[in-house]
């Protein structure tokens, strides 16, 4: 049977062989077909409302509602689920289906480079090259070699600032996402290996979906024999994870972010417009 995907407002529904999966807010609701009484559709011709009605022993069953924008897809989804439901007699006693519904974090997508990411990465060096060529042309138009030398000499620190700005951006995004949806677990020491001349420790843990994950690095020990540290990971992006550091390391990280990262980011962002304004005023 072909799996069907139905995208609704803030919810994605997936119909697999023996269950309907509802992904909403980073969490996945798994509803077995045996727990579904029927799937009803309603609404106007341009918009449908889908109601997944669970089996119930009384007259007030649990209902999960979706509002997909595509009426054709909504009807096809409801028909496919209803066709796959187990055959029941109308007077057959029903058991409550709600207890068999489970909730887990949405499994991470398989990481791969899509065309947009690849295209964006190709545009970055071209953008830096175009900026350098523009500045060089403006500096040459002033007729003074001093401007050309200053522009060329200051462009390398600008590129270094761009690299540091990217690090600040990634640190900020990781902190924000892990703060919003991160799950903290205890990771157990697994083994050690040298990365260059540095001994790196590897810790392992089991995520909410039951898969084993590894974290390479160090953190504040919360237990020994075996060593265990706290690791916070993003269930939607398993490679995004961090560990709890000691107070001194956290303080140094905050100081580096505030006193170095943010000023470098501000200076990097100001460099192109300020430099071009100076060159234009010299023409």
What's the mean pLDDT score? 83
User: What's the number of helices?
Assistant: 4
How far apart lie the N and C ends? 70 Å
Question: What share of residues is helical?
Answer: 40-55%
Low-confidence stretches: 110-116
Instruction: Please tell me how large the radius of gyration is.
Output: 28 Å
Compute the number of strand runs.
14
Beta-strand content bin: 25-35%
Q: Could you please describe the fold and organization of this structure?
A:
The chain is of the alpha+beta class and 283 residues long. The chain has helices spanning 71-84, 115-141, 145-181, 247-282; strands at residues 4-8, 11-15, 19-24, 27-32, 36-42, 49-54, 63-66, 102-105, 183-195, 198-206, 212-216, 221-223, 228-234, 237-243. The strands form 3 sheets. Strands 9, 10, 11, 12, 13 and 14 form a 6-stranded antiparallel sheet that branches. A 5-stranded antiparallel sheet has the order 1-2-3-4-8, with helices on one face. Strands 5-6-7 form a 3-stranded antiparallel sheet, with helices on one face. α2 packs antiparallel against α3 (145-181), α2 (115-141) packs across α4 and α3 (145-181) packs antiparallel against α4. The termini are far apart. Residues 110-116 have low confidence and may be disordered.
List keywords for this structure.
single chain, 283 residues, alpha+beta, 6-stranded antiparallel β-sheet, 5-stranded antiparallel β-sheet, 31% strand, flat
Set out the fold topology.
Blueprint: E1 4-8, E2 11-15, E3 19-24, E4 27-32, E5 36-42, E6 49-54, E7 63-66, H1 71-84, E8 102-105, H2 115-141, H3 145-181, E9 183-195, E10 198-206, E11 212-216, E12 221-223, E13 228-234, E14 237-243, H4 247-282
Antiparallel strand pairs: 1-2, 2-3, 3-4, 4-8, 5-6, 6-7, 9-10, 9-13, 10-11, 12-13, 13-14
């Amino acid at each position: 049977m072909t799996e069907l995907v139905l995208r609704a407002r803030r919810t994605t529904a997936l119909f697999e062989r023996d269950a309907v999966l509802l992904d909403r807010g980073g969490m996945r609701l798994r509803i077995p077909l045996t727990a579904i009484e029927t799937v009803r559709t309603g609404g106007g011709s341009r918009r449908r409302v889908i109601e997944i009605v669970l089996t119930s022993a009384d007259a007030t069953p649990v209902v999960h509602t979706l509002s997909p924008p595509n009426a054709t897809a909504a009807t096809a989804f409801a028909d496919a689920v209803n066709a796959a439901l187990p055959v029941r007699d109308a007077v057959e006693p029903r058991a409550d289906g709600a207890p068999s519904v489970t909730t887990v974090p949405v499994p991470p997508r398989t990481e791969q480079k899509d065309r947009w990411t690849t295209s964006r990465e190709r545009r970055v060096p071209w953008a830096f090259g175009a900026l350098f060529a523009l500045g060089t042309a403006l500096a040459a138009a002033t007729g003074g070699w001093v401007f050309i030398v200053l522009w060329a000499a200051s462009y390398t620190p600008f590129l270094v600032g761009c690299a540091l700005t990217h690090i600040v951006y990634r640190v900020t995004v990781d902190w924000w996402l892990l703060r919003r949806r991160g799950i903290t677990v205890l990771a157990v020491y697994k083994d050690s290996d040298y990365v260059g001349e540095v001994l790196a420790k590897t810790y392992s843990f089991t995520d909410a979906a039951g898969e084993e994950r590894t974290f390479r690095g160090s953190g504040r020990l919360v237990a020994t024999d075996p060593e265990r540290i706290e690791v916070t990971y993003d269930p939607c992006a398993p490679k995004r994870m961090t560990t709890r550091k000691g107070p001194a390391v956290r303080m140094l990280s905050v100081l580096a972010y505030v006193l170095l990262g943010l000023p470098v980011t501000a200076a990097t962002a100001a460099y192109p417009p300020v430099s071009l304004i100076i060159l234009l005023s010299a023409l």
